[in-house]
Amino acid sequence: MDLDSLRFANFSDLDAAITDWEQMVAKLKTLQGDAKDDLKAKSDKANWAGENATVTRAFVDKTAGEFADAHTQAETITKILTDTRGELVGYRTELNAAIHRGVQKNLTVQDMGEGSFTVTMNIHPDRAAKGTTLPEHTQQDVDAFRDEIQNILKKATESDTSAANVLTLLVDQAKYGFSDASYSDRDSAAKAVAEAEKMAKILKKDPHDVTLTELNTLNTTLAAYKNDPLFAERFATQVEPKKVLEFYAGIADPYQGYGTDRKRLEQAKQLQKNLGITLGTATLSDSDTMERWERQMVKLGPDRLGIDDANDPTGFAVMSNLMRFGDYDDQFLNDYGDKLVAYDKEHNVKNMSPWINNWNQGDLNFYGKYDRGRDPMTGFLEALGHNPDASTQFFAQPDGAGAAVDKESEVNDHLKYLTKDRIWLSDSPMMGGDIKVIAGHDSLGHALESATTGYAYDADPMSGKDPMVPGSRDHRTAATAGVMEQVAFLYGSEDGPKMLHEQSQLADSLGKMGAAYIDDIDYSLSGVGDSAKDDGAFPAKYGGRANFGNQGAIDFLSVLGQDETSHGVVSAAQHLYTLSALDAFPATSEANIDSAHDALTTGADARGILDHSRVQQAETTYKADSEDANKSLGRSGDWIKLGTGVVVGGGIAAIPLPGSTAAALVVAPMVADTAGEALNTFIGHQVDKGIDGAEDDPTEKSQMTSREFYGAGTKQLGGAYATYLDNNPQIGDASDQGNWTQDINYSYDNGSSQNDHRGRPPYKD
To answer: What SS3 state is found at 444?
Structure first.
């Protein structure tokens, strides 16, 4: 900064700009509130139909979000401008005070342009008036004066330049619309950028020369700033994509002579997560520099890095392990995935995997007991599991699909390849691993959970910022339903039982997907064939609901019922959904009574399909009525214990799987927004039951014959009906009340009959 620019600075234009921005912030705050509380709130409550249910609602949601981002960005810009103005005014005051002190020693400064200046005597002795006594100064005084002026100008330049840099970075974050990046002042934003540049210098080093202290510093800083948009972008763009991959491969390679150095290995593990999240945050920027970085990273995918570390891995092999963590740009993930799948298809040859083979010892993943990280498809699918919009796009239903998916030509090519055509191999460690476990199948399940439910597979729906609740916050959309229809078609197909058996790691994910769409599954079962569907008993919770078709719903349920895990998860969701319908339809009108009746009978139909499928598979896998078959049915009968710990709110039930964390939560839509008497009675009963049985030997396996198993099913359905009668004594006046028990029993038996004649047969080895 030139000396005179600061010395004679007039901040009136900046003051006016700040005033304008302050007024803009206030106006945008009002608009943000209007968009949220009026526009979006009305949209959430509206009963949209047709294209309005998908296009208009999505547009309203996006618009409301843009108002929020606009307010955030305007507020941040105002704070940075205000902070910078305050600093520059302060430096101007310091400069003039220093010049005044210099005059007292007969010293002054002269602006020479381009940031330079000279220190001269204020009045030369030869030109002083006769009799004037001038102040004396030493060379030390001259040097000190020069250094003080220089230091002030340096700080002012840094303030001005860093403000310009962060404002430019901030605006470039979003090419269209606004960024949600928020900073309290210029210093915090500038510090983020400065820290990014420091950390980038470490990444540019030879990874073998990086000390443990430097690694610790890198991890600590990345952990602190990994979600900071300006830090992330500046950090990533300071290092070429190839160098990023080389650095991580060099640090993570366990065969570099420090494989037994536990401290360094722990730092490498932390780096995988911290670096992955940081790079993900960086990809969310729309700046030209970042977009160029992303294109280069995708281009590097098939190529080997040309290094001695980790068996000279490809770009895919390294980047896929980093992207297991973080929120990545949707388009970047899809571009990356398109290229990875295309490359993988070319090398999909039996006994010739380019990833998992005897000579590849490039273990670059520190997370997952049975996952060495050699198969890049696994890491990529984990990335999709954490990025719902990207996964929904990656597995999107092809254009031209019918009302319900009923042929393979209506299945996304990526989905068909990964579920049916790809040769999956176990990537379990040689020591202490299990070659029967295929980590990639588990990750495929995670990606499909994300694509169908609209939230990260390991998110906690009840405590996250965007739980799955009615209206716009139910993340299911016509697009997610399109993916779900494909999944149901594939796993409900003739090959479905074989696919589920060979991909057993997907069973929990398929169960969770079925649970998330239990309302649409019941809707598809209602009516007669594919006609006269019951919108009253099974109301749509989002626009463009999934249509499985009557036969498709039967096929899918009949396959889900074959596995103990998926049978239990969907049975629990079905029971809770039926109970919520009984709460939502009290016997206050004939219409409500009809809806409650239909919810009970259709639920019984679904349960019959699931239970009969479970019995058939147990008797096929084991000898009928054998001890193992009975134990298997006993375990399946324990699904009711999932009622312990259920949380209901906002129209959903969050069901925790026993002994698991939030990552294993099952989310099931409810008809009612809150838990009523029927749901509370069931949940409370299960909590008490769980307490009573806390001292039971967990290794004991209950046994149950098929006769007892079916008996338990009818008992649970009868209990639901009894609860409805208790809560609605007036139902005794209904003319058809006496037929309900017969209808429920018939529906449960009919479900078994449907499965026997129309569902998929059990899997046979």
So the answer is: helix
